[in-house]
């Protein structure tokens, strides 16, 4: 009986310190694929009794997951202050930039950069507004900065679908640079030289009360932030 009481007390202590329990992370695969695996692996080494669950979700899906208490932390694009739940804290991880996504046989795939206005008469494929309102608004800001009124031919719900549609010749894509990390042998990615719009990736989590397992992961993110920024740099 004493041994069971000690075991139960130790379990409670571990959970309270974030050394045991669960950590459910919602993430955007294109934005996180080249740093999240190593980050989770490092966290698991130092916190072997924390069960980590990774959920590939759009921004909209992450916000719904927070409402349903299905995730503890999101690696996501920020939403407007008006739509932001008060209990969520937001911390910047890194800033991305837009690139043009061209079909592999497009005549401009070999140039180092393109002015967006050069392609003003092309049909454009952009990520669906309802899945990431902030990204959609940033995309429109990029067109506005270039003096382009876009003909938007498609709004896919996933970045992988965007690549498939561009590869099929259905339009020109505009997306964050991180899309290059997804699998595609039918698309080329070219820098845009007449607009500069930062696309932040942030960590969002409930901080009142603060989940101890989230706290340990947030601390690891802070420690690795400079390394992550170097790793994902578009330059």
Q: What features would you describe in this structure?
A:
The protein is elongated. It has helices at 2-16, 29-32, 36-46, 59-67, 133-146, 159-167, 212-232, and strands at residues 20-27, 49-56, 73-76, 88-96, 98-103, 113-114, 123-125, 151-154, 172-176, 187-192, 199-206. It contains seven helices and eleven strands. It folds into two domains: 16-95 and 200-232, Periplasmic binding protein-like II (D-Maltodextrin-Binding Protein, domain 2, 3-Layer(aba) Sandwich), CATH 3.40.190.10; 98-197, Periplasmic binding protein-like II (D-Maltodextrin-Binding Protein, domain 2, 3-Layer(aba) Sandwich). By secondary structure, it is an alpha/beta fold. The strands form two sheets. Strands 6-10-5-9-7-8 form a six-stranded mixed beta sheet, with helices on one face. A five-stranded mixed beta sheet has the order 2-1-3-11-4, sandwiched between helices. Residues 6-13 have low confidence and may be disordered. Keywords: DNA-binding, Transcription, Transcription regulation.
């Amino acid at each position: 009986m004493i041994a069971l009481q000690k075991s139960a007390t130790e379990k409670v202590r571990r959970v309270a310190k974030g050394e045991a329990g669960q950590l459910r992370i919602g993430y955007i695969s294109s934005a996180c694929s080249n740093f999240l695996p190593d980050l989770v692996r490092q966290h698991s080494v130092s916190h072997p009794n924390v069960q980590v669950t990774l959920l590939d979700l759009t921004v909209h899906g992450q916000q719904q997951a927070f409402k349903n208490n299905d995730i503890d932390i999101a690696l996501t694009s920020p939403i407007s202050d008006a739509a932001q739940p008060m209990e969520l804290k937001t911390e910047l991880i890194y800033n991305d930039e837009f690139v043009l996504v061209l079909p592999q046989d497009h005549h401009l795939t070999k140039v180092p950069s393109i002015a967006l206005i050069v392609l003003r008469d092309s049909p454009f494929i952009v990520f669906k507004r309802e899945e990431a309102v902030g990204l959609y608004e940033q995309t429109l800001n990029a067109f506005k900065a270039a003096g382009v009124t876009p003909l938007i031919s498609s709004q896919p719900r996933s970045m992988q679908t965007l690549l498939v549609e561009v590869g099929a010749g259905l339009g020109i894509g505009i997306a964050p640079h991180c899309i290059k990390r997804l699998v595609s042998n039918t698309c080329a990615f070219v820098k845009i030289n007449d607009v500069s719009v930062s696309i932040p990736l942030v960590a969002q989590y409930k901080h009142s009360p603060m989940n101890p397992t989230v706290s340990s992961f947030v601390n690891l993110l802070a420690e690795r932030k400079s390394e992550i920024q170097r790793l994902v740099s578009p330059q």
